[in-house]
């Protein structure tokens, strides 16, 4: 008797996401006896008329997954067709148990898993509090650290005796914070341009450039800022051209191979106060005034540090030895800075009539130096807002597409039922 029966039904642990199920009965060989296909057990979804489709002589329907099994009955098999069908039916009933009875690593169902996680979290929190109050307190940390350091030294000495070099990164040496070595942390000022929806105060930037030009430019340079960068930010194009023309720049060579001097253009960078570093040190008692193009970006605290440094000159405290030619400033690392205080009340007369006290001068020049460090600040914020709006719309469309377009495609199950063949 030549008969080939193939049955494969997939098993899925949940009904929400049933997997694809395929049930086939291969055509029989000529002049052979065939047997009817096995029935398929269906779930509650069979009562929904939307889940049943008919096409030709085969029925396509949505059904609950039952088991995962495959059986081929060949002429060499010793089992009879009826025994084969009974065996497959028993296998189907064995795997058709409810998915909720399957126990996971954290419980039988999702509720038990949540309970397990809640208990674990509460237990870890209580254990952490008990550990911090009993062992990791001020009375025990110092002896514990000393013991760990002694163990570290013992391990290193043993490794050295064996001719090896070892480092223990988990046990670093602790050093107390030293104000003279690290400097005082600057206070945080409420800058408007730190808000997501606000740009630089361009009136403040214009005043800050005036402070830089009249006070700071005598010692500090802006090597990375060209005159054209001021156009549309602090000055108009004609104003920038006029300011650039006030300086002479070396250019050339000309037709005779000679260098010549010409008036500045918008493409030129702002001139340096000194021709080289040696000349700058010679004019400032050995100290080198840094370039201010990226000073806010290069310092921790950014414009807060710049403003605190400009206003942080005090008399040295008792016991502090100030070197000759230095000035005490707690915000500067080491506390001793070569630059003397440069900003005082009414040292600069603003064009727009803004009060010109020392704090206002420091605020404006700090904002200007923040712009020189981040000239793309305003454009970056504009691009960020556009990106957030477009990404939000695309995310909503993606959720809708996933929910209403792909949900039924990914979760459907198709079963092919062959027509019943009468026995011969």
Automatic annotation (TrEMBL):
It is found in: Mitochondrion inner membrane. GO terms for cellular component: mitochondrial inner membrane. Heme c binds at residues 216, 219-220, 339. One of its GO terms (molecular function) is heme binding. Pfam families: Cytochrom_C1. Gene3D superfamilies: Cytochrome c-like domain, Cytochrome c1, transmembrane anchor, C-terminal. One of its GO terms (biological process) is mitochondrial electron transport, ubiquinol to cytochrome c. Binds 1 heme c group covalently per subunit. Residues 17-61 are annotated as: Disordered. It catalyses: a quinol + 2 Fe(III)-[cytochrome c](out) = a quinone + 2 Fe(II)-[cytochrome c](out) + 2 H(+)(out). Its EC number is 7.1.1.8. It is an enzyme of class 7 (translocase). The keyword Transport applies. Its main location: mitochondrion. Keywords: Electron transport, Heme, Iron, Membrane, Metal-binding, Mitochondrion, Mitochondrion inner membrane, Respiratory chain, Transmembrane, Transmembrane helix, Transport. Residues 19-31 have a biased composition (Low complexity). Residues 203-355 form the Cytochrome c domain. Its cofactor is heme c. Belongs to the cytochrome c family. PANTHER family: CYTOCHROME C1, CYTOCHROME C1, HEME PROTEIN, MITOCHONDRIAL. This is quinol--cytochrome-c reductase.
């Amino acid at each position: 008797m030549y008969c080939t029966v193939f049955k494969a039904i997939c098993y899925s642990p949940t009904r929400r996401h049933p997997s694809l199920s395929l049930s086939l009965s291969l055509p029989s060989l000529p002049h052979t006896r065939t047997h009817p296909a096995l029935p398929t057990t269906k779930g509650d979804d069979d009562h929904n008329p939307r889940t049943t489709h008919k096409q030709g002589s085969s029925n396509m329907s949505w059904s609950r997954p039952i088991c995962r099994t495959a059986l081929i009955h060949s002429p060499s098999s010793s089992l009879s067709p009826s025994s084969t069908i009974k065996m497959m039916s028993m296998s189907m009933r064995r795997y058709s148990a409810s998915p909720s009875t399957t126990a996971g690593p954290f419980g039988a169902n999702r509720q038990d898993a949540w309970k397990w996680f809640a208990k674990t979290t509460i237990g870890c929190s209580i254990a952490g509090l008990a550990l911090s109050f009993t062992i990791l307190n001020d009375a025990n940390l110092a002896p514990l650290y000393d013991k760990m350091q002694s163990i570290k030294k013992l391990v290193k000495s043993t490794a050295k005796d064996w001719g090896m070099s070892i480092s223990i990164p988990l046990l670093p040496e602790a050093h107390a914070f030293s104000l003279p070595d690290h400097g005082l942390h600057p206070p945080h000022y409420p800058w408007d341009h730190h808000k997501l929806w606000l740009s630089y105060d361009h009136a403040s930037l214009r005043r800050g450039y005036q402070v830089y030009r009249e006070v700071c430019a005598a010692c500090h340079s802006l090597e990375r800022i060209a005159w054209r960068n001021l156009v549309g930010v602090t000055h108009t194009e004609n104003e920038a051209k006029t300011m650039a023309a006030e300086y002479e720049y070396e250019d050339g060579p000309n037709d005779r191979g000679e260098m010549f001097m010409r008036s500045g253009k918008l493409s030129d960078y702002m001139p340096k106060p000194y021709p080289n570093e040696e000349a700058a040190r010679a004019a400032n008692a050995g100290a080198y005034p840094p370039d201010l193009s990226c000073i806010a970006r290069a310092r921790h605290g950014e414009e807060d540090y710049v403003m605190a440094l400009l206003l942080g000159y005090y008399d040295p405290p008792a016991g502090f030895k100030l070197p000759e030619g230095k000035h005490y400033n707690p915000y500067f690392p080491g506390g001793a800075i070569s630059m003397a205080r440069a900003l005082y009340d009414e040292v600069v007369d603003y064009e727009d009539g803004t009060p010109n006290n020392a704090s206002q001068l420091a605020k404006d020049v700090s904002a200007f130096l923040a712009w020189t460090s981040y000239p793309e600040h305003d454009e970056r914020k504009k691009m960020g807002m556009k990106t957030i709006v477009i990404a939000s719309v695309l995310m909503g469309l993606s959720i809708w597409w996933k929910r209403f377009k792909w949900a039924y495609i990914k979760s459907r199950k198709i079963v092919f039922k062959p027509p019943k063949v009468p026995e011969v």
